[in-house]
Each structure stands twice: as structure tokens, then as C-alpha cells.
Amino acid sequence: MYEVILYYNFSPVSEPEKFAKQHKKFCKELGLKGRIYVSSEGINGTAGGTKEQIQQYKDHLRSLPGFEDTEFKSDEADYIPFAKLICKVREEIVALHVDGVDPKEGGNHLSPAEWRNVMESGEDYVMIDVRNNYESKIGHFKGALKPDLENFYDFPQWLDEANIPKDKKVLMYCTGGIRCEKFSVLMKDKGWDDVNQLHGGILNYAKEEEGAHFEGKCFVFDDRLVVPVNPKDLAPIAHCEITGKPADTYVNCANMECNKLFVCSEEGAFQMEGCCSEECMKSEYRRPFDPENAFRPFRKWYNYFGEDFKARNEASAATPSKS
Ligand SMILES: [Zn+2]
Questions:
Q1: pTM metric for this prediction
Q2: What's the CA-to-centroid distance between 49 and ligand 1, angstroms?
Q3: Catalytic residue set
């Protein structure tokens, strides 16, 4: 049995490059796998390993000045859902692209029990799912607004157009809590007063309240992609984009130039050989269909294509796109 953790801490890092380098060295020597981002505002990570490795990692992070109070969301997994270790510096540990957002000025943190009480109280509120559309599609709290957005940094504009009355009680949630830490600050800055965020996010709620009032499952950013929230209700709420039948598994389109992550059943994956559309099936940059691995995230273009594919992709990424 392995352990997978998710954590963040908004604690200023004066030299992010140096911090990340030392942190990566420690993780590498420990044999940890995962994805860790460091910025001047703090750290955000998800990692997997044996119980012993994870314990050593937690002890290490909590031994660093400013990170003593780091909270970890933890889950068991029967494999390590990361192919490698990534530890690097980013502009923000979660990208909202709004300057001057200080997470210390955020909303009230509601414990899972408090959150559940508000949901059961009959009180009037608006609930916002601050995750991306492909995440909320397969699972969300009952009655939540689920903005149809592909990036977290699209939320500020959405908020400007959403017409949410300023005197409404606001509840917001995300996977592990980090996105609420920033979005709640933005809402308070813009004049909402009663702003509340689910402490520890859906993953913490799943552990403490067994997913009461949550429908479907939770998208996670590791190779598992989807984890259960309510153990008594495992029925998918989303539908396969190929067959239209209930499904909550994801496939990265086998056309490497598309690589879209979409909800797809096993039947749909076989039918389209892992592609999202007829057009993608005609691509010359198609990964061979591999049913064994079709339901794991795929970004390993270099296993199939050479440098010219990389150059083409980088050229197209450099030109301004919709996002
Ligand atoms: Zn496609």
C-alpha cells in the first residue's frame, strides 16, 4: 500500500530557486515522486510513496522555517500515481493572475462538519465550485454553480459577469482548498462580505463526512485522475463523450496534437481508439491505442514522436490562443 498526499502552504519563500533546488535534492534522495511547485508565496504539492517515505517528507517539510504548520490531505493507493518527480519554481503556486491577493485576507474556513451543517440548515446561500469544467463535470456538491471554465485564472472575469448579489452568503470549494485561498480574497476585495471556504477541500470532506450531499467523484491531478468521495454512491454522474453512456473515466485524446482530456468509457475508447473525434482519428500524430494504459494521463509524446513534433507544438503554443 502506498500513500498519496496533497498540500500547500502560503508561507513566503525569499529565494524560491534555491529552495526548490534543495527541496528537489531531498525528494530525489528520498525516492519520492510527484509534482511540487515553489514560488515566493509558498509551496503547493502532490506526491506519492511508501508510508515511510511520506512520513519522512512530511517531517522534512515541517522542519523548514515557516512550514511547521503545513497540513496534508492523505489517501492510500495501490500504486504510486506519478511517473516521476517534478519540483520547480512558478510565478504563483496556484495561478489566478491577479496581483496583490494575500491569502491571509481570505474567507472563513468551514470544517467539513460546519459546511455540512450550513448545507442542511435551509439557510440561503450561493455555492461556487471553483474548479475547472472538466473537474466539476464528474462530481460536485448538490446545488453548486459550476462555471464552464478551463482555467482557474478565468474565474475573475466570470465573477464580474455572474451577478451574484453582494449580500449573499457565499460558500466555495475546490479539491484540496488552495484555489479557495485565493478566490475568497478576490471576492472579499470585490465587496462580498460573508465568504466561506471548505477547509481541506473535497478530499478532506470525503474523509470526514463521507461525501454527504456530494454527487459523483473527485478529479485529482495524479495518474489516478478520479477518486471516490462517497463510498456508498459510486455511480457516475457524467457521460462518455463518445457513447453517451454513464462514465467517469478520462482519456487523453490519442492525437498528440489534441491531447484533450475527456470523459470516455472503455467502450468509447475502443470505438475511437482513444481519440476524441473522427478528425483526431485521421491525425498522423496518433499514439498507438493501448487499452492497458488508455485510462492514465498521457503526455509522453517523446515516446512516439521526434523533435519536429516538439518544435511544432512549441510554435503553436507561442502564438496567442483562446486562453
Ligand atoms: Zn482529439
A1: 0.88
A2: 33
A3: 174
Q: How confident is the model at residue 233 (pLDDT cuts 50, 70, 90)?
A: confident
Compute CA 239 distance to the chain's CA centroid, rounded to the nearest angstrom.
20
Q: How many CB atoms lie within 10 A of CB 52?
A: 10
Confidence of residue 315 (pLDDT cuts 50, 70, 90): low
- Nearest CA-CA partner of 227 in 244, 245, 204, 243: 204
Ion ligand 1 neighbours (CB, 5 A) are 253, 255, 258, 260, 276, 280
132 Cα–ligand 1 center, Å: 19
Which domains, and CATH codes, for the chain? 2-89 (3.30.70.100), 103-219 (3.40.250.10), 250-318 (no CATH)
**8 Å CB contact between 201 and 219:** no
Contact 74, 46 (CB under 8 A): no
Q: For residue 280, how far is its CA from the centre of ligand 1 (angstroms)?
A: 5
Decide which of 8 and 315 is more confident.
Answer: 8
